[in-house]
Amino acid sequence: MERALDIQANLSSEFPSMIKHMLPSHVTGGFWLGLPKHFCLNHLPKEDRMMVLEDEEGKEFQVKYLVEKIGLSGGWRAFSIAHKLLEGDVCVFHLVRPSKFKVYIVRKKCSEEVDVALGLLKLESSTQLVDNGKELKICEISVGKTEDRNDPILYSSNLEPTVDQSKNNRVDLGSEVSDGIRLSESIVDFREVKSFEDFNILVNGLVIDFEFSKYLQMKYYELCCNQNSFLHENLLEGLNCKLVAGVIAETINIADAIRAAKLTTPHDSFLTWDKTLRSFEGLGMKVGFLRARLDKLMNLLTKSRRYKEAKLEQANSNEEKLKLEAKLAEVTHTLTKLDREIRLFKQENADDLEALFREVANGPW
């Protein structure tokens, strides 16, 4: 469920979304999926209607939405079986159109690739590459597939930009592949980079500088200079260029956020940054120095907060001490008063008061 919540948090807030935990009735037998009433009343049609469920691969399924029963019926069985949904799986429904859900599936026993996908889900709506007026195919991040792979990392089914292969329109572009993207003539060792002008970001033999603003390129150059290496040089081979660009951009953002952090920065922010960097590290990104800095900052943050807590506890304890001392003084005063009163009684033979009492009681009228 935590993974599903993370996915939902990264979806566009422009469209409503909901989470459904798969129960036996949802995936076996009747194959009926009840939906949250408040969600249906606020966002879904007011009459029975066919709706579309689109999975992570873009495949669409027609389902019947029943207003009175507040749920999905006809067609849900086909969707459930096609995606091998099991009890305990979680589906995130994103209402991208009035009658269309984008569905993200989180398996009960999902692989570690989800941790990487979560931090990069926002790339799905990022700027797309353009080649001769046509959109290039971008890797869609799948958070639901659990089939075995040679490597548990997300790969694009089309690792190189698509170019027009028509014989009538074929043009010799040399090292140019498309607007902004070009092939690198050779692999450059970072030690050969003497200035920012020599700095290029290479992925799968392609220069992807066009993916970044000059500001981001300069920030990344500074980070690489600090470590005397390309931070992305050990990334797993075959990763989609868009995915790598997203990893680099987010690494820069986190580095800037670390620089701007204060003692008042929420602890959860540090945890989120570290979780994201840990995912990037799993892909091969050289971010250990950033995680080490985060660890030091979190330790200092913990000490600072503990110091503030200790000072508050000290102030409260001193206040309690003053109250107890005042109470002790009051009790001491009472004891002193009682001691003086008892001494006076003793001077009056208070021990013989009972005999005196009987004498007075039995005396003549």
How would you describe this structure in keywords?
At1g16640 B3 domain, 3 domains, alpha+beta, about 375 residues, 4-stranded antiparallel beta sheet, about 45% helix, about 15% strand, 7-stranded mixed beta sheet
3D architecture notes:
With 365 residues, the protein is an alpha+beta fold. The protein has 3 domains: 2-109, At1g16640 B3 domain, CATH 2.40.330; 112-286, no CATH class; 307-365. It is 43% helix and 14% strand. The protein is built from 10 helices and 13 strands. The chain has helices spanning 2-10, 24-27, 37-43, 76-82, 113-120, 214-227, 241-260, 267-283, 288-347, 353-362, and strands at residues 17-21, 33-34, 49-54, 60-66, 71-72, 90-97, 100-106, 130-131, 134-135, 176-178, 181-183, 202-203, 206-207. The strands form 3 sheets. It has a 7-stranded mixed β-sheet with strand order 1-6-7-3-4-5-2. Strands 10-11-13-12 form a 4-stranded antiparallel β-sheet, with no helix packed on it. Strands 8-9 form a two-stranded antiparallel sheet. It comes from Gossypium barbadense (Sea Island cotton). It is found in: Nucleus. This is TF-B3 domain-containing protein.
Reconstruct the topology from this structure:
Layout: H1 2-10, E1 17-21, H2 24-27, E2 33-34, H3 37-43, E3 49-54, E4 60-66, E5 71-72, H4 76-82, E6 90-97, E7 100-106, H5 113-120, E8 130-131, E9 134-135, E10 176-178, E11 181-183, E12 202-203, E13 206-207, H6 214-227, H7 241-260, H8 267-283, H9 288-347, H10 353-362
Parallel strand pairs: 3-7
Antiparallel strand pairs: 1-6, 2-5, 3-4, 4-5, 6-7, 8-9, 10-11, 11-13, 12-13
Helix pairs in contact: 1-5, 5-8, 7-8, 8-9
